[in-house]
Design brief:
Number of helices of chain B: 2
Number of helices of chain A: 17
Distance between the termini of chain A: 70 Å
Helix content of chain B: 40-55%
Radius of gyration of chain B: 25 Å
Distance between the termini of chain B: 73 Å
Oligomer: heterodimer
Largest interface: A-B, 20 and 17 residues
Chain lengths: 314, 63
């Protein structure tokens, strides 16, 4: 290393990354949802797992999710810089270099997959590897900039964590874990389209073919309603499987009635009305959709806990 | 080239270094915990490293 190179590395740079910037690269808010749904998948499974193995497995699933987040930030830095919602992320803000995000994403992906394989089983590790590949390559690199159906198909990446959690416990895949997958998969489109409706110019400025950009807001409103209608039987139907029960059914019925009502109100409104009240309904439905998913998985957890006392299920 | 301990870069990157250090310690703790659980859950372990195993020595008159 020459003296000039050494000097260059020790000189303070504007906006140098702190530890928090590297944590932000892993999208901690998305990680928290991954941790929760994977944990529910693991605890709802009929096979008990040693607490240390469960903790380590959830940790490595979260690490894999974070790694895919870093890869997504590396790839999407150009469009993230153009959108208000994402402009302050570490790569577009200039605090972390793109190459560093790529290196961190690849390294953590490898560590997460290998460690999950050692902690639990090869199927869980394989599913985690596929999830990272699906989010980073299929969604971020391929679909996101190609088709308005990007989040419909890309939503599968977010739907895998409970399947991985279930695989950690049972070593397999079943109808119950497929239903948890379907619940998140069907929930993703109306959730993101409600967001796209009030994030007015972000996606069009970045040239991302979001449904609001390619098909207009009226069509997006109709899509929110149709996908919510399609979501209802999946969500309520899970009540009649071994991971569901009366408590889940009661919670799910209330949540689905609320989500359907919200989607119907979004469908009824037009842009003039929405702009007049600052997209109040769209924002409210978006927020409700977060509680919707959280409480559905919470209900799975309640049923699993009740089963522990011999009370859950039908 | 060597840095003196009080070089400016050490102070500037203190937070990052402490964060990385704690992360590595936590990672080592997870590996240690996993190892203990995996070893204790796999049942009794016998070593065969040059030690006579009385249970494996054929007894006279048993064949």
């Amino acid at each position: 290393m020459s003296d000039i190179q050494a000097l260059d590395q020790t000189m303070p740079r504007p906006g140098e990354a702190g530890f928090g910037d590297y944590v932000a690269l892993l999208k901690p808010r998305v990680m928290s949802l991954v941790v929760f749904t994977a944990l529910v998948g693991l605890l709802a499974a009929p096979v008990p797992v040693h607490p240390v193995v469960a903790l380590a497995s959830i940790l490595f699933i979260a690490l894999g999710a974070g790694a895919s987040g870093a890869l997504n930030m590396w790839w999407d830095a150009d469009i993230d810089a153009l959108m208000r919602r994402t402009a302050r992320r570490p790569v577009p803000a200039g605090t972390v270099a793109g190459g560093e995000a790529l290196g961190l994403g690849l390294a953590l992906s490898g560590i997460a997959v290998v460690m999950l394989g050692l902690a639990s089983n090869l199927l869980a590790a394989g599913l985690l590897a596929f999830t990272i590949f699906f989010y980073a390559v299929v969604y971020s690199m391929w679909l996101k900039r190609l088709t308005p159906q990007n989040i419909v198909i890309g939503g599968a990446a977010g739907a895998f964590p409970p399947v991985i959690g279930w695989a950690v416990a049972t070593g397999g895949v079943s109808i119950e874990s497929a239903l948890m997958f379907a619940l998140i998969f069907m929930w993703t489109p109306p959730h993101f389209w409600a967001l796209a409706l009030f994030m007015k110019d972000d996606y069009s400025r970045a040239g991302v073919p979001m449904l609001t950009v390619t098909h207009g807001r009226k069509a997006t409103r109709a899509h929110v309603l149709v996908y919510t209608i399609l979501l209802v039987p999946v969500a309520v139907g899970a009540a009649f499987t071994p991971i569901g029960g009366p408590a889940y059914l009661a919670i799910s019925a209330l949540l689905n009635a609320g989500f359907l009502y919200g989607a119907w109100r979004i469908w009824q409104r037009n842009e003039a009305v929405a702009e007049a009240d600052g997209y109040r309904v769209e924002k409210r439905v978006f927020r409700f959709s977060l509680y919707y998913l959280f409480l559905h998985f919470g209900a799975f957890l309640v049923e699993a806990a009740l089963r522990g006392f011999g009370m859950g299920g039908w | 080239m060597s840095f003196r301990p009080d070089h400016e870069i050490h102070r500037r990157r203190l937070g990052r270094n402490i964060g990385l250090g704690l992360t590595l310690v936590a990672f080592a703790a997870v590996i240690f915990g996993l190892t203990v659980v995996k070893v204790t859950e796999s049942g009794p372990i016998q070593g065969y490293d040059h030690v006579v195993q009385p249970g494996l020595v054929p007894q006279e008159g048993t064949q």
